[in-house]
């Protein structure tokens, strides 16, 4: 009995202090806020506009235009935005609430990740697969209630995979009826998205798509055993990882089997070949969106930058050491195939957009680590620009495109009158130098402004633990 009471008190204390934390992160919560003299990249792909005033009232954008013309309400809290650039809150489509912690463990970061995603500019996200679905669902609820600071979450069901994956947290489906049972079960529990994985069979994928669509939900996949073309023909909505996991170009590929030669087949692919063009056309014709996750692939390419020190400071020492060791290992081994793939497949994502395809952005904090929420979203945008996208288009890919896919573009995804005040404040001009995006002192969600440095400081030495 005494033990039970102590436990209750301990839980209550934990809950109260967590609540106090959230208040400590808030810089602005006035009902009316006006940013004056800001540069604005609105998320539609339109060119940056200079010297703008943006007015927020009760969580909504109520005015946006030339500073000379827009009237500032007398009761507004003014923010001098000279030298600052406003972007829409990011809508990131391949996120996870878990992080690789070694020995096949993927640990749910219930405490740090929602807050870090928000501090990195992400105000809406999809979890592209989960290890701990109830934690994701409960976090979504708490964020919606306002007791936890974090992005809106489109929660994906646990991975839908066949046998063959050596990850203990992932179930192996036993056929089409089992697939249907899983989809219905998780829909009943409240998930709104599904992700099929590398060892799924065509018949299972077909059933997953049918049942999910019947429930009004969308399906994405990280494929291998099924080709992109097969999945498109089955009616899939979205494919993950750009073209990095397309098994379409493997010679003599066996149906429903994940071949070990995807990388070498892609290394041999000419991105201007009729085969590559035909796959792009098939995707576009069937309105299948692609999610770019250059951030996670970068970690496997020698010669690419290491995760920034501030991101590494978020990791607990053991996890930081694991990352450093793996990163050193990647640097030590020349890997021309990986170098070539990274350059080439980034360009292929650009061709997909030029052909009319819907490209979205995600960061995928998996691999061996180093893709750290709070930093990874900014890095993904830098990598899109590196692959030839205008900054304004990289922002559209990372905001409006995801909102469109989620059917939420009337509410979020751009800086426009009537939309929710989800606003990223960059100190500097990322049009001149993309890396200016790394200076992001404030992130607004629902009209509430969060001090990102306060969140980062509070989250030091947490990632890897909770
Ligand atoms: Zn992933």
Quote the distance from N terminus to C terminus.
Answer: 29 Å
Named CATH architecture of the largest domain: Alpha-Beta Barrel
How many domains make up the 3D coordinates? 2
Tally the helices: what do you get?
16
- Portion of residues in beta strands equals 15-25%
Q: Output the CATH homologous superfamily of the largest domain.
A: Metal-dependent hydrolases
* The first-level CATH class name of the largest domain: Alpha Beta
Return Rg in Å. 22 Å
Outline, from the CA principal axes?
globular
> Could you give the count of β-strands?
19
Q: Which stretches are poorly predicted, pLDDT < 50 over at least 5 residues?
A: 12-20
Characterize the structure shown.
With 466 residues, the chain is an alpha/beta fold. The chain folds into two domains: 100 residues, Urease, subunit C, domain 1 (Roll); 317 residues, TIM Barrel, CATH 3.20.20.140. Helices cover 37% and strands 20% of the residues. The strands form four sheets. Strands 1, 2, 3, 4, 5, 6, 17, 18 and 19 form a nine-stranded mixed beta sheet that branches. Strand 8 and strand 9 form a beta hairpin. Helix 2 runs antiparallel to helix 16, helix 4 runs parallel beside helix 5 and helix 13 packs across helix 14. The chain is globular, with a radius of gyration of 22 Å. About 2% of the residues have low confidence. It binds zinc ion (ZN). Zinc ion binds next to loops.
């Amino acid at each position: 009995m005494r033990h039970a009471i102590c436990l209750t008190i301990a839980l209550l204390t934990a809950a109260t202090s967590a609540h106090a934390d959230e208040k400590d992160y808030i810089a602005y919560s006035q009902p009316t806020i006006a940013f004056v003299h800001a540069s604005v990249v609105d998320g539609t792909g339109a060119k940056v506009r200079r010297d703008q005033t943006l007015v927020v009232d009760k969580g909504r954008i109520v005015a946006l235009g030339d500073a000379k013309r827009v009237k500032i309400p007398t009761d507004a809290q003014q923010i001098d935005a000279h030298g600052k650039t406003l972007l829409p809150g990011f809508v990131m489509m391949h996120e996870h609430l878990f992080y690789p912690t070694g020995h096949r463990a993927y640990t749910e970061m219930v405490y740090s990740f929602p807050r870090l995603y928000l501090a990195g500019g992400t105000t809406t996200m999809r979890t592209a697969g989960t290890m701990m679905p109830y934690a994701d669902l409960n976090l979504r609820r708490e964020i919606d209630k306002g007791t936890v600071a974090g992005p809106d979450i489109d929660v994906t069901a646990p991975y839908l995979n066949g046998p063959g994956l050596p990850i203990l947290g992932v179930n192996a489906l036993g056929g089409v009826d089992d697939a249907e049972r899983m989809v219905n079960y998780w829909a009943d529990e409240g998930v709104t998205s599904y992700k099929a994985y590398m060892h799924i069979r065509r018949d299972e994928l077909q059933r997953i798509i049918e049942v999910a669509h019947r429930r009004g939900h969308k399906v994405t996949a990280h494929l291998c055993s099924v080709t992109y073309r097969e999945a498109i023909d089955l009616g899939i909505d979205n494919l993950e990882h750009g073209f990095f996991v397309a098994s379409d170009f493997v010679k003599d590929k066996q149906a429903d089997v994940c071949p070990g030669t995807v990388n070498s087949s892609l290394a041999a692919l000419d991105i201007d070949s009729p085969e590559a063009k035909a796959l792009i056309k098939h995707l576009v014709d069937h309105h299948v969106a692609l999610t770019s996750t250059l951030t996670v692939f970068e970690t496997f390419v020698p010669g690419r930058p290491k995760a920034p020190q501030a991101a590494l400071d978020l990791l607990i020492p053991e996890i930081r050491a694991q990352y450093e060791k793996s990163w050193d290992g990647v640097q030590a081994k020349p890997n021309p195939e990986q170098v070539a793939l990274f350059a080439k497949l980034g360009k292929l994502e650009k061709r997909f957009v030029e052909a009319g395809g819907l490209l979205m952005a995600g960061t995928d904090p998996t691999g061996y680590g180093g893709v750290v929420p709070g930093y990874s979203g900014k890095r993904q945008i830098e990598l899109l620009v590196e692959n030839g996208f205008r900054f304004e288009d990289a922002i559209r890919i990372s905001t409006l495109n995801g909102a469109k896919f989620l059917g939420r573009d009337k509410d979020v995804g751009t800086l426009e009158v009537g939309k929710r005040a989800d606003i990223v404040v960059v100190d500097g001009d990322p049009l001149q130098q993309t890396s200016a995006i790394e200076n992001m002192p404030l992130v607004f969600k629902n009209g509430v402004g969060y001090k990102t440095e306060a969140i980062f400081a509070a989250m030091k030495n947490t990632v890897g633990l909770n």
